Amino acid sequence: MSRIALAFDLGGTELRAALVGDGGNLLAFASTPTRAKDGPDVVIEQIAMLAERTCSDVPDAKPLGIGIGAPGPLDPVAGILTAPPTLSGWREVPLAGRLQDRLNLPVRLENDANAAALGEWRFGAGRGAASLVFVTVSTGIGGGVISDGRIVHGRRGLAGEIGHMTITSESERCLCGAVGCFEAVASGTALGRRATALTKPGDGSALRTLSHDGDVTGRHVVEAARSGDETALGLIDREARWLGIGFTNLLHLYSPDMIVMGGGISHGYDLLRKPIEATIQERAMPAYRDVPVVPAQLGRHAGLVGAASLIFLN
Length: 314
Known about the structure:
Blueprint: E1 4-10, E2 14-21, E3 26-33, H1 40-56, E4 66-70, E5 74-75, E6 80-81, H2 95-103, E7 107-111, H3 112-123, E8 132-137, E9 141-147, E10 150-151, H4 182-186, H5 188-198, H6 206-210, H7 218-226, H8 230-254, E11 259-262, H9 269-283, E12 293-295, H10 302-312
Parallel strand pairs: 1-4, 4-7, 8-11, 11-12
Antiparallel strand pairs: 1-2, 2-3, 5-6, 8-9, 9-10
Helix pairs in contact: 3-10, 5-7, 5-8, 7-8, 8-9
EC number: 2.7.1.2
InterPro entries: ATPase_NBD (IPR043129), ROK (IPR000600), ROK_cs (IPR049874)
Organism: Rhizobium gallicum bv. gallicum R602sp
């Protein structure tokens, strides 16, 4: 049997676990809603129970260790979650140490976006590249940077908060409190907000029909654009222009071999690609214009595969 790692993706909504082989293949998978409001003790108990359930699916498996991707801010070296906003009561929690004591296996902790970047680099769209920037465009915008085969951590592991680089002087205020963040103008949430503002309940538009006259989401916009709706296509073009500006900044900052786009809005990559590329051609210095922007390949399992890779590369 190949080398195996036990991997976790700890989200504010869902806790996911898998046994992952060293070829990036999932041997077993389980998930449960995260009891995010109940504090660290309860969630750590959930992790232990999910570990037992996952390992029972492959009785002969002997994991080398545990890799866990979790929301930041966190310190990957010390294995401490500092104060993740999606988990109530988590402040300076030594998650790696507590899990190691509980499950008797070595534990590696990493920011969830960094874990996904590592997964795409080793087994997904970034295979063979020396460096990449992974950008997840979903409810918010997050990312991870791989340079010369290593995750870029920065001071206290806080590098790569690309959703909060300022790309305009105008926009609604971001959840971080600033105005003009990449996340505030180009996330799936921002796309849905613009679509909701352009339409009204009961107006018969494709967007409101898809949303059943509720708030329109980014996914609704992609779906309507795919069917040829003119309003949605205009929104997609504007979204792509914002993404292109952000991606141009990332090219200048990190000079990667590629940018890998994941997250829910990446399902509309085919619609976004041309205006993203056009914006990069308009704004990037010539040396950066041939860097490809490609869709992620691992989907929702990128974080789990990357978390397992923390063990395989250790």
